[in-house]
From TrEMBL:
Pfam families per UniProt: ADH_N, ADH_zinc_N
Single GO MF annotation: oxidoreductase activity
SUPFAM superfamilies registered for this protein in UniProt: GroES-like (SSF50129), NAD(P)-binding Rossmann-fold domains (SSF51735)
Name of the protein described by the UniProt record: Zinc-binding dehydrogenase
Annotated source species: Mucilaginibacter straminoryzae
Positions of the Enoyl reductase (ER) domain: 4-329
Length: 331
């Protein structure tokens, strides 16, 4: 089979012939029809991620058709159209992942290949209203945004939500999930065009975080926020406590723009704010996210589709962050 192989930091995406995986107990072979990139794949490709090993096949997001199963008990999966949960071996505590937790696509071979082997417990029926590219876009970013909003942020209909940096893959999903849940969603972005795209997807309004007075403008527009989803942090975070309503939940799972700046601690405790970290999600959250997608017939935002045989352009676009929504590779 063909796969994109991470040979070294200098040769991060070589499309070449590799051995097709052989199955063990509990496993299925999925013929990948589409896969999607995450920021994680980019960090690994440039050597900036813990536990990198060469050679590896990256890719956490994928959708395809079950071609083989090992166990007779799994035969009902044969020929099924599936999407793959990349959040593996979560562990016994729903509150946090255990020590064996791993994300598909390093250390185990991922979805940037014609075939992947994966335990059947991580297979889910592909939402019928989505094509391969749309289905493949969901798993990692969709799951992270789902847990951040609902489990950690305890979002409910009518809440006011701020999504910082809506152009992030996770940002677009957080927007779509929150709109479906009946929240009033505001966004920030470094691009006016992306704010406009967010409005078309149901955001009430947005501001450009590069403007001097972005926080004041946002406060004027929205009043205050009950939930803030921030995967950028950096200098801009200093303004977040002031934008929060009393009792607000601020959820973070990334720090694209850097670590915490100084911020007003007194405002933080006086308003009884909660700062919550999150990463990926449980099997139950993955299933609940797909239920939301199916019930609301949500269609993920695809920025561009590339051929798996020529992945360099997709990685370059991820590096430049010029996309809105997901970058997808098709076989
Ligand atoms: N812990 C986890 O489980 C988990 C899962 C997924 C992602 N992550 C992390 O979460 C972050 C987002 O990941 P991703 O793949 O969704 O998206 P991404 O492509 O890494 O997101 C980049 C986006 O961050 C926004 N941004 C950059 N600088 C900013 C600033 N100064 N202020 C506000 N926003 C800024 C930009 O939004 P605009 O384009 O709108 O300006 C940009 O498009 C990354 O750090 C990633 O490593 C963690």
């Amino acid at each position: 089979m063909k796969a994109i192989v991470l040979e070294s930091a200098e040769r991060p995406y070589v499309y070449q012939e590799v051995d097709k995986p052989t199955l063990g107990p509990g496993e299925a072979l999925v013929q990948i029809r589409a896969a999607a990139l995450n920021r994680r794949d980019y960090w690994i490709s440039i050597g900036k991620y813990a536990g990198i090993k060469y050679p590896s096949i990256l890719g956490s997001d994928g959708a395809g058709i079950v071609a083989e199963v090992y166990d007779d008990a799994d035969k009902h999966w044969l020929g099924q159209e599936v999407i793959i949960n990349p959040s593996h071996d979560w562990g016994e505590h729903p509150e946090y992942q255990g020590k064996d937790f791993k994300i598909l696509g390093l250390p185990e071979h991922g979805t940037f290949a014609e075939f992947i082997k994966v335990k059947t417990e991580y297979l889910h029926a592909k939402p019928a209203h989505l094509n391969w590219e749309q289905a493949a876009a969901i798993p990692l970013a969709g799951l992270t945004a789902y847990r951040a909003l609902f489990t950690k942020g305890r979002l409910k209909a009518g809440d006011k939500v701020l999504i910082v940096g809506v152009g992030a893959g996770t940002g677009a999903f957080a927007l779509q999930w929150a709109v479906a849940a009946g929240a009033k969603v505001f966004v920030t972005s470094g691009s006016g065009e992306k704010i406009e795209r967010a409005r078309q997807l149901g955001a009430a309004a947005g501001v450009n975080y590069k403007a001097q007075d972005w926080a004041e403008e946002l406060k004027h527009m929205a009043g205050g926020f009950d939930v803030v989803i921030d995967s950028a942090i950096g200098e801009g975070f200093a303004k977040i406590p002031d934008l929060c309503n009393p009792g607000a939940r601020i959820v973070l799972f990334g720090a694209t723009a850097g670590d915490f700046p100084g911020f007003n601690a007194r405002m933080f405790f006086w308003k009884q704010l909660q700062l919550l970290g999150t990463t990926m999600g449980t099997k139950e959250e993955f299933a609940a996210m797909l239920k939301l997608v199916n019930e609301h017939q949500i269609v993920p935002v695809i920025d561009e589709v590339f051929s798996m045989a020529d992945p360099a352009k997709a990685f370059e676009k991820m590096r430049d962050s010029s996309q809105f929504g997901k970058l997808v590779l098709t076989t």
